[in-house]
Amino acid sequence: MINKVINNVQEALEGVEDGMTFMLGGFGLCGIPENSIAELVRRKVKNLTCISNNAGVDDFGLGLLLHQRQIKKMISSYVGENDEFERQMLSGELEVELIPQGTLAERCRAAGAGIPAFFTPAGYGTEVAEGKETREFDGKMYVLEKAFKPDFAFVKAWKGDTAGNLIFKGTARNFNPMMAMAGKITVAEVEELVPAGELDPNQIHVPGIFVQRIFEGKDYEKRIEQRTVRPKN
Amino acid sequence: MALDKIGIAKRIAQELHDGWYVNLGIGIPTLVANYVPEGMQVEFQSENGILGMGPFPFDGEEDADLINAGKQTVTLLDGASLFDSAMSFAMIRGQHVQLTVLGAMEVAENGDIANWKIPGKMVKGMGGAMDLVASAENIIVAMMHTNKRGESKILKKCSLPLTGVGCVKKIVTNLAVLEVVPEGFKLIERAPGVSVEEIQNATEGTLIVEGEIPEMKID
């Protein structure tokens, strides 16, 4: 068993530098690497390119990095919940590449799976396809999309073991597994870290081979963006 | 009288088929889940990783780790499954999801749709909409027929950046049910009490009216 455990978040982020490209898991605020984001804020690394489905909200998630102007470029599919983001984008301070959500997921997966590019129908005939190769297969048009090349991937899981195996809960899985596959260095933070052998191998979502560093995170806020409920009878 | 959002959702619910997997977009489409015809089995897919999505949780039982694509807290029904985003869009691109219902800012008579960006003003992003419209066999657009200034959103040609080309098949608005055919928008049904003339006046694109147009039947 190869031990992937790192003592704390400070050590887990050793090697992050200005100008790097990061992947950050999560959908909205669900399943985001809260501890790693807090450490990136503390380290004040800047000129970052961040690949993440969303850009957080004004005062949480990636919004914290935006607030400090640490992000040079965002690559996302939907950024509607963040006023500061919209302001920086419309004023031209922040470079933004918006891409279809399925394309985003597949560009992450491809990066980890050794596939340099793939054809998808998403975005054909729209500005997303501008400047990209297109090709017809069986009468339908497709756009060539390339795998990402991130320096670090920051992911968050529910449980993990010392071998780096990960298990997710609910919809907090989202982009985390394929981003874990893609990172040159993948840092996984987990709510509960257990010794190797305690997790059922049948239930592992991400095999430890994709994780270089794992640590147990602290003080998860797990903020809910839209609390929607129905009354009890 | 023109339909409200609930009326539009009720009319779209009549388009569901037994055994279909359905993806509902944010806004009016989400409401469709409340009006599935009795006895019909459909499963709702949420592109952030759920099949078999249930209603909102009871007050106090909400879980930050269980949300829909609109970031709202939801529940799971018996038989539900959870998966990652690559798997989710494999379902969508691979045409395993039978119906997509989504909103739009504009639709055009050639089936083009625009719903993700107003240059210089509003940029929210396409989310999963481009993947959904590029692959779904059945796409129903739920929208208001006109904007707040009374201008038609049912157009000859979209003016906003496109989400997808030639993909919309059916549109349910507050005024009418329309089908996209090679010649333009074919009027299928009128909202209760709304005249063909009113629909004509609210439609910038080519409207095709053949014979008597029935009223929608909404409970």
Straight-line N-to-C gap of chain A:
51 Å
Number of strands of chain A: 11
CATH homologous superfamily annotation of the domain at 5-42 and 96-208 in chain B: Glutaconate Coenzyme A-transferase
Order of helices and strands of chain A: HEHEHEHEHEEEEEHEE
What CATH architecture of the domain at 5-42 and 96-208 in chain B do you see?
A: 3-Layer(aba) Sandwich
Mind telling me the C-alpha Rg of chain A?
18 Å
Morphology of chain B: globular
Q: Order of strands in the sheet with the most strands of chain B?
A: 4-3-2-1-5-10-12-13-14-15
Nearest-integer average pLDDT of chain B? 96
Work out the helicity level of chain A.
10-25%
Number of contiguous helices of chain B? 5
Model description:
- The complex is a heterodimer of chains A (233) and B (219).
- Chain A has six helices and eleven strands.
- Chain A has helices spanning 9-12, 34-43, 63-67, 83-90, 101-113, 176-182, and strands at residues 21-24, 48-51, 71-76, 95-98, 117-120, 134-137, 140-146, 152-161, 166-167, 185-194, 213-216.
- In chain A, strand 8 (152-161) and strand 9 (166-167) form a beta hairpin.
- The termini of chain A are far apart.
- Chain B has 219 residues and is of the alpha/beta class.
- Helix content of chain B is 16%, strand content 27%.
- Chain B has five helices and 15 strands.
- The model of chain B has no long low-confidence stretch (mean pLDDT 96).
- Classes of the chains: A alpha/beta (233), B alpha/beta (219).
- At the A-B interface, helix 4, helix 5 and helix 6 of A face helix 3, strand 9 and helix 4 of B.
